[in-house]
Amino acid sequence: MIRRIKNKLTRIHTQGKYLSDDIGRLFTNPDAFYKSARGARILIYHGICLNEPTRFNNIFITRDTFEEHLKFYTRHFNVVSLEDYWLGNFDRERFNVCLTFDDGYANNHKYVLPFLEKYKVPASFYITGISDAGYDILWNDYINMAGAYGPAQFSFEGIDYIRNQHRKYVSKDSKVPLSVTLRDQNFYAKRKLMDYLDDCFYFRNIAEIEDYWKQMTTEQIRELSVSPYVTIGGHGYYHNDLAAITAEEVAEELTASKKYLESITNRKVDTIAFPYGSYSKEVIDAARNVSYTKLLAMDFNMPGDKEDNQLKERLTINPYISVHNQMNAIINGKYY
Predict the structure, then answer these.
(1) Roughly what angle, to the nearest 10 degrees, separates helices 323-332 and 63-76?
(2) Strand duo 95-102 + 123-127: pairing
(3) Which of 4, 223, 229, 314 is 20 to 30 A from 115 via CA?
(4) What pLDDT is stored for residue 11 in this prediction?
(5) Treating both helix axes as pointing N-terminal to C-terminal, what angle do 247-265 and 218-226 enclose, rounded to 10 degrees?
(6) What is the CA 267 to chain-centroid distance, rounded?
(7) CA 84 from centroid of its chain's CA atoms
(8) Regarding predicted confidence, which is higher, 307 or 16?
(9) DSSP alpha helices (H): ranges in 50-186?
(10) What is the pLDDT of residues 130-180, one digit of tens each?
(11) pLDDT digits (tens, 9 = 90+) for 4-31
(12) Dist CA 254 CA 98 (whole Å)
C-alpha cells in the first residue's frame, strides 16, 4: 500500500513538472533554447498507430505525433543516418538526432516510410526473424492481445493465470506477470504458450487493431530496404531477451537473424539493436563473432561500456508527454 501511494505521488509530481514546462512555453520563446542546443542523440521509436497509442503498451505514438516530431527535427535539429552518427559527421551548429525503429512492425512500412521520403530524413529499422520463423506477431504483443481479448483465466504448465485490472495476466498465487516469466525463457516456451492459447481467442480478424501487433512481411522488409533513407539492422530472431538465454541460443539467433535479413536486402547487415536493450558481455562477444560492428543498447549496464566505440546508448520516445517536453528530454538526454 505504501509503495503504491509513493508511486502515485511520484507520477503526480512528474506530471506537474511536464505541465509546468508546457505552460511556461506559452510565455517564453523556446526556439532560442533549441537553436543553442548542441550534441547528438540516438532515438528509439517502435510502433506508429492512428490513435490510442497506449491502448496495448507504452511504446507506440500516433502517426500525427510522429509527423510533428519530424517537422520539429527538420526545423530545429539535424537528422543524421546511423552511419554518419558512428562517424561523428554532425552539424556543429545544431543538435543532431538519429532515428531508429525497433521491432519490425508493419506500421513502420505503412506510415513511417512515406514520411521519411516526404521529409527526406534517414532512419534505421531493427527487425527480428519472426516472419521467417512463420509468425506474424512477436510473443510479447501476443500476450498483450491475449490480455485484451483472451480468457479471463487459464492454466498452463501447472500454473493458474488470471487477468488483472490492467488487462495483464499474472499468476494467481505469486502475482508475477506472465510476460515477466516468459521473458526469461527461450522461444520454445513462448511458442508453446502461443499455440496453447490460439484456440481460446481471436484478434487477427479485428482490422482496427492490426497496427498494434502485425509484423512486416518479407516483401515489406524488402520494399523498406530499397529506400535510400533506410538502413536495416538485426533485432534478434525471436525477440528473446538475449541476456537471459544460453550462449548457444544467442549465437544461433544472431546468425539466423543476420542471414535472413541479408538474404532479403542483398546488403551486409552489421548493426544490431538488442531486444529490450538487454545485453551482457557474452551477448556482445557473440554479436561481434558474427560480424555485428555497431551495437545498440538503451542504457549502458557495465563498466567501460561508455568507452566501447562499437556500443551506443539510445533514448526511448515517451508517448505520454507533449512534443515540446519530448524535445527537451532529447536534448537533456533524460526524463523527469
Answers:
(1) 50
(2) parallel
(3) 314
(4) 60
(5) 60
(6) 23
(7) 21
(8) 307
(9) 63-76, 82-87, 106-107, 113-119, 139-149, 178-183
(10) 999 999 999 999 999 999 999 999 999 999 999 999 999 999 999 999 999
(11) 444 543 565 577 778 777 777 655 677 8
(12) 24
Grid cell for residue 297: 543498447
The number of helices, as runs of H, and strands, as runs of E, in the chain is 13, 14
Q: Is there a contact between 43 and 313 (Cβ–Cβ < 8 Å)?
A: no
Start-to-end CA distance of the chain, whole Å, equals: 24
Q: Domain 37-133+215-332 in CATH: superfamily? A: Glycoside hydrolase/deacetylase (3.20.20.370)
Burial of 333 (0-12, 13-18, 19+ CB in 10 A): exposed
Rounded CA separation 66/211 (Å): 15
Which residues, other chains included, contact 315 with Cβ-Cβ below 8 Å and sequence gap of 6+?
41, 42, 43, 44, 298, 329, 330, 333, 334
Taking CB atoms within 8 Å and a gap of at least 24, the contacts of 81-88 are: 81/122, 81/124, 81/231, 82/42, 82/122, 82/124, 82/231, 82/233, 82/271, 82/294, 83/231, 85/40, 85/42, 85/312, 86/294, 86/312
Rg of the chain over Cα atoms, rounded to whole angstroms, equals 20
The domain spans of the chain are 37-133+215-332, 139-203
